[in-house]
Amino acid sequence: MTAMIDVANAQKTFTMHLQGGIELPVVRGVTFHVNPGECVVLSGPSGAGKSSILKMIFGNYRCDSGRIGIRHRGVVIDLATAEPRQILNVRRATIGYVSQFLRAVPRVATIDVVAEPLIAGGMTRAEAQQRAGALLQRLNIPERLWQLPPATFSGGEQQRVNIARGFISDLPILLLDEPTASLDAANRAVVVELVAAKKRQGVAMVAIVHDDEIRHLIADRIVDVTSFAAAA
Amino acid sequence: MVDQAALESDQPLLTAKSLGKSFGRIAACRDVSFALYPGEVLAIVGESGSGKSTLLQMLSGQLAPSAGHVSYRMRDGVTRDLTTLGEAERRFLFRTDWGFVHQDPAQGLRMAVSAGANVGERLMAVGWNHYGRIRDTASDWLSRVEIDVARIDDAPRTYSGGMRQRLQIARNLVTEPRLVFMDEPTGGLDVSVQARLLDLVRSLVAELHLAVIIVTHDLAVARLLSHRVMVMKGGRVIETGLTDQVLDDPREPYTQLLVSSILPP
To answer: Considering the entire predicted model, what is its pTM?
Structure first.
């Protein structure tokens, strides 16, 4: 298998114990794969389960049945059955996740928020900060903001900090959940360029994008999530 | 990268097997098993009376289990059953390779002696005897936990609650332990003071590659600090897993109740 991500028959149902045990089927029979250097965009209306699938691939949501095969350091690991430690290792070395929202860490300067994944991966602080600065510059975050914690930034600025943090590492898989949601045209174009650069490096990506124009620009293939609808 | 590779291949630091404790007819803690690896942060969550403090006391060798056992891999690489350790060995472990951060700093500090002595005492207990070096190391640790070094000769009873808690952390970390137990470390603090302390603990844990077992009823603390979480109810572990998985996709009715009880930020 050369695919970086190989999802087979994955199924997810929420059981809402506080609402009398209602079963909320989300998706079933989810099957698709992503090769290196490819960007697969998940499509479908709100509530079809796109974000849930992305979270299952990140190991954030559990998978009731099926398989989430991830190529991690040359070995395929099934995240549906992996131990927490294995999932953490996969996240450190293999899968990055760029969500719409920055989970702000109090008191940490923007430049360090962005540099942190590189430092955790063993890079020196100075070098990591240099790369973080270059990326922030590219995403039009003015240098005078770099030493401030991003908690007080505008929504668009926070999202760009989050994108910088997500794109800075050299992880072979990236999951993008609405990376351009609240960005202006200039910054959307930067994100499209960043995605193209990742493809050239052989990164496998799965994205959720509502903007038709962006989707057209980044998608190599589109997977229609409505075919995995679990509702009877 | 070296640390990460070591983390993957390493042996567990502490292992609990079928651990249980009964007080007369009351089972405070039943059948708890898990393994903790170097550098891993495990949060034990649950409300008062769920058995989490009893569990922490057994794990740290302060309370003898009624069933099961706890083993710990010592610095020499030999894994020992805690119950077979002599009192002197156990105390030595507590002074060197382990730390214990109490909810109430007064329990973990000597309130009437200076901050410098509080930190230096742990060093003297492991054989340091050069006054100048002890004082230098103590001041270094005070600044690492963001206490003004000018306050080194003041006793912690003159400190604020947040400063006392940071001093307790410095006292625990000065001997470079590999495992730190924390019992509701942010319990008695104001929200803003809590945030600062959590941020400090978070960076120290990563920097020093510490393994931590933290007992908390605050799921936000668990989310910020821990890799893994165990949810306890009625003395049993009812759900366990990766922290974000358990908190974002809770499976058990009780965990869903806990998660849904958090006020939105």
So the answer is: 0.91
